[in-house]
Amino acid sequence: MTGGAVAAAAVSKVALAAIPEPVIQTSPDTMPPLHPDTGRPYNPVVTLNGWTLPWRMHNGVKEFHLVAEPVVREMAPGMKAHLWGYNGQSPGPTIEVVEGDKVRIFVTNKLPEHTSVHWHGQRLPNGMDGVTGLNQPGIAPGKTWVYEFVARRPGTFMYHPHADEMSQMAMGMMGMWITHPKVPSALIREADRDFCFMLNGYDIEPGAYTPKIMTMLEFNLWTWNSRVFPGISPLCVRKNDRVRIRIGNLSMTNHPIHIHGHEFEVTGTDGGAVPLGARWPEVTTDVAVGQMRQIEFIANEEGDWAFHCHKSHHTMNAMGHKVPTFIGVDHTGISKKMVKLLPDYMAMGDRGMGDMTEMDMPLPENTVAMMTGDGPFGSVEMGGMFSVLKVRKDQKPGDYSDPGWFKHPDGTVAYEFKGLVREPQRNSSAGKGSMPVKYSADVPKNLEVKVSKPGSSMSHE
Ligand SMILES: [Cu+2]
């Protein structure tokens, strides 16, 4: 049997004979990679705050068992969300195979409504594509269906329902799929560290547990694998490692993913490996909705490097967005009084938000501070889609444990200048600067700008 679905007769026999015991995992910690004990050896991926689904070999077919079900996901210490996911978690476990593998996935539906699984990006028989109504009926609650195909194309893929999609994806149903190449090549090299995670977003009111699934744009929790900083694991690597990070986006907006201290290349997209001549160095790459991006670099700069989405509102946790800007307003002493009256009051843009953590603002039940995370120099003032790449020369190969904060060599940390600082020379506001203001003769100097507002005021002009 080559290059197609496994014969249908084999399916029913196997389904009747036995179905692999579902493996459930509920810890939000990053689980160690799952080294293959069959087939071609490869360096397995590490799913940030996630895990890889174990499989069994059955007559030459790799068998997995996914269980779609309600789950409780800790998004960060102190906050749990009631989501839907697979095998105890949202996102579901990463499925990892090798190009050419015959794969059989049993999907059991323990949700209160029908579902299906679409294998995003895969080449497969049309009837295995998982679009409810188009390629198959929905999998009814309590039923188990079987998908079978050959992993034909190496790369980074995703899986998600194609049934009541808006609700099911807003509730956290998604996962990653990695197909390693049969033979490593210049296009797909072996990496020393191979990380993966999904970008997702939730709208969960502080104090609530269940996402509002009707939300289209105003999400308040921007997550990597349904976790927010400081709940996202650091990416711990050894100096000079070749690091690959695979990112899939099933949130409702794009995320420019940015790394500090290194340049990377996008070595793969949804469509496969990027040809060598089409790669260029970057420090930020946009991952649009429904896309996968695979970035690679040599981690040759020691330190604790920020790694985050560059939309500043995506590195914050739940907050109100209807907060006025108080930059320039002296609110000395006011903040503390206000907090007593309005627990979620925050004066923004004055002394930084780190203050707020130090003030021990009372938080409602089940939420995380908007900007938080203690670093070696104080509050990191971040949340949401933020993590740290930790590059150490003494990190052992295969060791993903957190080495603690970077110990900077003497003389390599920014420092305060203690000498005399002169007042800066400023251009005068009267127009005697380097570019003096010119008025044409027919424009009065004290021109008032008249603004026409739409509506009733229009008729006044
Ligand atoms: Cu973002």
Can you walk me through this structure?
Pfam families: Cu-oxidase_2 (PF07731), Cu-oxidase_3 (PF07732). There is one protein chain. The chain folds into two domains: 20-201, Cupredoxins -  blue copper proteins (Immunoglobulin-like); 203-392, Immunoglobulin-like. Helices cover 6% and strands 30% of the residues. It is built from four helices and 24 strands.
Question: What are the SSEs and their pairings?
Answer:
Elements: H1 8-17, E1 46-47, E2 56-58, E3 61-76, E4 79-86, E5 95-98, E6 102-109, E7 118-120, E8 144-150, E9 155-160, H2 165-170, E10 175-180, E11 193-202, E12 221-224, E13 235-238, E14 241-249, E15 255-259, E16 264-269, E17 272-273, E18 281-282, E19 284-287, E20 292-299, E21 303-309, H3 334-341, H4 354-358, E22 372-375, E23 378-382, E24 386-392
Keywords, separated by commas or semicolons:
mainly beta; Immunoglobulin-like; 2 domains; 4 helices; disordered N terminus; disordered C terminus; binds copper (II) ion; signal; Cu-oxidase-like_N
Low-confidence stretches: 1-10, 456-461
* DSSP, total strands: 24
> Share of helix among residues?
under 10%
- Give a quick account of the main beta sheet: strands, pairing sense, barrel closure: 8 strands, mixed
Calculate the terminal CA-CA distance, rounded to whole Å.
Answer: 80 Å
CATH topology of the largest domain: Immunoglobulin-like
The hetero molecules present are: copper (II) ion
Oligomer: single chain
Order of helices and strands: HEEEEEEEEEHEEEEEEEEEEEEHHEEE
The overall number of domains is 2
CATH architecture of the largest domain: Sandwich
Strand content: 25-35%
Structural class: mainly beta
Number of helices: 4
CATH top level class name of the largest domain: Mainly Beta
